Amino acid sequence: MYELLKRDGAARRGRLHTVHGVIETPVFMNVGTAAAIKGAVSTEDLERIGTQVELSNTYHLHVRPGDQIIRKLGGLHKFMSWEKPILTDSGGFQVFSLAGLRRIKEEGVYFNSHIDGKKIFMGPEESMQIQSNLASTIAMAFDECPSSVADREYMERSVARTTRWLERCKREMDRLNSLTDTINRHQMLFGINQGGVYEDIRISHAKEIADMDLDGYAVGGLAVGESHEEMYRILDAVVPHLPQEKPIYLMGVGTPANILEAVDRGVDFFDCVYPSRNGRHGHVYTKQGKRNLFNAKYELDERPIEEGCQCPACRRYSRAYIRHLLKAKEMLGMRLCVLHNLYFYNHLMEEIRQAIEEGRFKEYKKKTLEGLQGGKS
Asked: pLDDT above 70 covers what percent of the chain?
């Protein structure tokens, strides 16, 4: 159940009650594609840095180690030793990114594994079955994720198929949750709005799926090549047509600035690989912008990554030391940068929630954006 606690303009402060605990929103989900955050981040680390939700990938876990194996081991929570909520994305985006390896049919998608070339079929029912085996808190519907620059005729056909697939996902999820041997019989289902950069297609699709009374609604197919301005335009158009009594999730987004802008437009859930991917390359987020710790100017810099930050890296280590680790290709350097970035994102969301509660989100957003644009180096 989603509980709306406070509005500040379009920005929303809410609470999603789940079988694995309460999610305070707006929230950033830490991305652990294969049931682990890249960068040697443990479950204990996630707890220490304030992670609320971990996100794992249906397709990747299906091909390795196999969802049946995870089911036999008691589900993803037990497998990872993580008690809080987990969201699994449907595998749709990964399947459609394998453009040269797949064929889309009404029944689903035929494709080859990126690991060993093995033939795989995935449709709405298969995606729900895999996610049920993983026993995640929230399952995402299986959708087609067309290119944002696809022509209008293709986009209309694709969105219509996504709607038909969503109906099949809902039926299969209801069936699976009714079975006595299902690990998580309270698994939630979020549907996905598609339509590229066509406002009218997006709005029409949002109205159509709003009637399905799902547990939450996502905006997909953005942050895949269109400009930030186009993304904000689509959010302005589509978010008001999604059910306001349900959580709204912007998939695969984004930078701290993207998150602030999307919260201002009524979005509650976010995920992105940026903090972990950038951290592994020595790029760290601060309130003064992004820093590249490989830069020579940090060679003798005894300050933490960000002064005042309470993450495990900043509480103990200097920029100079972390730079040395990165240059020496020591895994600890990568790990500390990833921990800092994830802490930064999780803490940013805490500040956003507090600002909305106190009715000062616009002021907070303006001040934070000004800082972020300040000292990139």
From this structure: 98
